[in-house]
Amino acid sequence: MSGIMDYPKNGRFGDFGGRYVPESLHGACVEVERYFEKFWSDEDFKAEYIHILQEYAGRPTPLTHAKRLSDQLSVDVFLKREDLTHTGSHKINNVIGQALLTKKMGKKKIIAETGAGQHGVATATAAALFGLSCQVYMGEVDVKRQALNVFRMQLLGAEVIPVGSGSRTLKDAVNEAMRAWVSEIETTHYCIGSVMGPHPYPYMVREFQRVIGEEAATQFANQQGGTPDFVIACIGGGSNAAGTFAGFVDTKAKLIGVEPEGGAAISRGSPGVVHGMRSNLLQDEFGQVQEAESISAGLDYPGVGPEHSYLASIGRASYKTVSDSEVLEAVTLLSQLEGIVPALEPAHAVAYLAREAGSEIPKDSTVVLTLSGRGDKDAEVVASLISARLGKK
Amino acid sequence: MSLLSDTLASKHKSGSKLLIPYITGGLGEEWIEVLLAVVDAGADAVEVGIPFSDPMIDGPVIQEASQRALGMGATPISILSALGALELDIPIAVMTYYNLIHHAGEERFAHWMIDASVSGAIFPDLSFEESVSWRQISTDLDIDTVQLVAPSTSNDRAKLLCEASEGFVYAIGVMGTTGERAQLHKSAIEISKRLKSITNKPVLVGIGVSNSEQAKAVSEVADGVVVGSALVRRVLEGEGPRGAYSFVADLRKAIDS
Question: Could you tell me the fold of the domain covering A59-89+210-391?
Answer without folding.
Answer: Rossmann fold (3.40.50)
